[in-house]
Amino acid sequence: MDEKTSCNDKIEKIITYLQKSQLSNGSFRTLRKFTNTVGNYVTPSEFDEWYEFGMCTFSTANILYHLSNIDHPVVDVIKKKASEFLLNSIEGGVVRYVPAQYKEIDFPADIDCTCLAQAALKCNCFDHDFNLKMIINNADSEGNFFTWFVPRAKQINPLSNFIWLLKDYRKCKSKMKEYGFSLELRKKIHEEYKTSKEPAILANVLLGIGDEIDLKYSRRQLIDLLLSDNFTIQYYKSKLDVFFHTARLYKAGFSDLEIIASHALKYINNNQKNDGEVESPFHTAVAALILMYFNLLNTEEYRKSLSYCISNEMHEKGWKPFHYFNDLHGIFYDGSAEVTATLFLEAIYTQNKINEKQ
What we know:
358 residues, mainly alpha, five-stranded antiparallel β-sheet, globular
């Protein structure tokens, strides 16, 4: 079997896997791995030590975004169902990790899921109704964006946004007491909600807002952070995720981010094994897409990471979930086998299209 046939077979296999994995409401699972005690709100999955957790907007938005350029009749159906799930998940013009209709409100809506959903719906040409004013008012004075939507002084304009946030946050605080969280832990979580921010999420905010508002100070902040090589991550697993989100922005038309390409290439080079793997199979697909988005197709790093994606076969349970997202208190980390498969699909499919044009 030649490489083209092998790639086409793999593309069909992944699409079939995603079709079978999509839930009836259009969402995709998020899987959770606990560092200690397993929560009582999850159910075991087919993967050892990983548990199914809710119907999350985060995984679904990521999958929808990265399927946007896949031209296939089955994928069109997947995208339509995923879009309907995200549209039905909007509350007050924003989105939370698990929509309130599927889980009692015990944490606020967040800007990361909101702007990922916004970007995914936009690039798939689905109309949406997000609260742009609430998103913009969640920024600090330096152009960074806070992760969580909680009542802040800046959100008083308009007053309706502040009232919605205040009511929502009171529900979260009440639920934490009901769960029996210690006063110390509740204080830590409240501080997290008020102050947490990181470049991986800043990049996703810019992706969601797009060119609706010129956030040049935020773009400059992101560039300065990445050029310093001294940026920190909180909710994401790897610095590679920050480069990934930034590369997505560049591909979406933010040309001033091209300056980050050499830093991303250096990071990948420093962390790539001889067989092409970068940190994990999941992050190897991430690496291939970063280099693809930054038009670094002629590099050895790209050749090795893409070759790994082509040759790394899906096992009988699908691609495994890998640590992509986590809490800040060392309790759990989340991943998605379907997100892993989607990134493999995009890398292989896009390279196939490039080969057809040559």
